[in-house]
Amino acid sequence: MIIKKYEAPTMQKALAAVKKDLGSDAVILHTKTRRRNGLLGLWGKEMVEITASPDANLLEKPPVSNTGNLIRYYQKTMGAENKEGQQDKSLDLKFLHSDLNEVKSLVVSLLKRSKHSDVSSLSDELLESYLLLIEHEVSEELSKEIIQKLHNDLSGEDLNNRELIRTSLINTIKRMIPSVEPITLGNQNGVTKIALVGPTGVGKTTTIAKLAADFSLRQKKDCALITIDTYRIAAVEQLRTYANIINVPLEVVLTASEMKRAIERHKHRDLILVDTAGRSQKNALQMSELKSFIEAIEPDETHLVLSTATSYKNISDIIDRFKMLAIHKIIFTKLDEAVSFGLILNVMNKLNRSLSYITTGQNVPDDIAIVDPHKLAQLILEGEK
């Protein structure tokens, strides 16, 4: 077995040296680029190094198919001529396209690995799964944690089994979703009090109307609605319209003391749903005011409503500010408007609260559902609604 190394300033010159010494049927075993040391180790010149062998049968399947054709392709692009002074016209285009596609695939793989160098040692299939998570906006830190779990759970040839990795990935994501807990009634003190909080524009009013319609019309429970959303008159009127349609009482309160009296008036009911005004998480005065209302309600559960159409950076800030309200559960809205769903997993990991509902449109009472963790894991991974 003969193995030789060739060094040149460019790939073309290195390949020409291989051909001249070993012939057109040489097998390229390895290529790399390195910097030759200059003065004091600085300003070194970049060189291409090729490891090659004249033995065409060295490998059962060479790393690049039909290496001779690839060398002849470089010959042709450089205008090189064969020994008779005639250009090599025997180039097989079918093999050429195969070679170029393989080189292109290798280049893309190298670029991906160089961008994510800390996971570059993974198998191609695991790296592909990692990049898929990143593409669907799962945070880099969480994506690495998920892939590391897969790497620990699998071994040997399983690490190269794309279908097995996909199934394991969905199951891993599923296990990372905290418990799914919709609203349940039957408080020992009588009425169950639920408050919905969140920033402006996430769909709290429509969501609370869906919940009221479901419990009142489908589950035949005695419900009442209370709103403190006095910042937007249109939102109050919208909720009043829904309340009239589903035939449940609605009260509008302006102060924390009014809230206490409204709660007292409806304590005989099965369920009180409270719609709070959308607050900017950056407005300390508004957040303090909202906290005083929540204390007056003394809710059995406070649900933080978040839109999946919001960037994770903004949602992360929202979570940090709304933590002061002692959040129990999370509702994700506007899944029909989201491009990807990785932020759901990011939020679940950051806040570690149960997930109660998701909403998928504006239709009342239909476009709301209790989450199926397996389907949600598929949604996060595949990005298809």
Give a verbal description of the structure.
This protein is an alpha/beta fold and 385 residues long. The chain has three domains: 4-109, no CATH class; 116-176; 192-382, Rossmann fold (3-Layer(aba) Sandwich). Helices cover 44% and strands 16% of the residues. The protein is built from 13 helices and eleven strands. The protein has helices at 11-22, 67-77, 93-115, 124-135, 140-153, 162-176, 204-218, 233-246, 256-265, 284-297, 312-322, 342-351, 373-382, and strands spanning 4-8, 27-36, 45-53, 192-197, 223-227, 250-252, 271-275, 301-307, 329-333, 354-359, 368-369. The strands form two sheets. It has an eight-stranded mixed beta sheet with strand order 6-5-7-4-8-9-10-11, with helices on both faces. A three-stranded antiparallel beta sheet has the order 1-3-2, covered by helices on one side. β5, α8 and β6 form a beta-alpha-beta unit. α7 (204-218) packs parallel to α8 (233-246).
Q: What topology, given as strand order, has the largest sheet? A: 6-5-7-4-8-9-10-11
> So, CATH architecture of the largest domain?
3-Layer(aba) Sandwich
Overall pLDDT metric:
78
Taken in chain order, the helices and strands follow as: EHEEHHHHHEHEHEHEHEHEHEEH
The computed structural class is alpha/beta
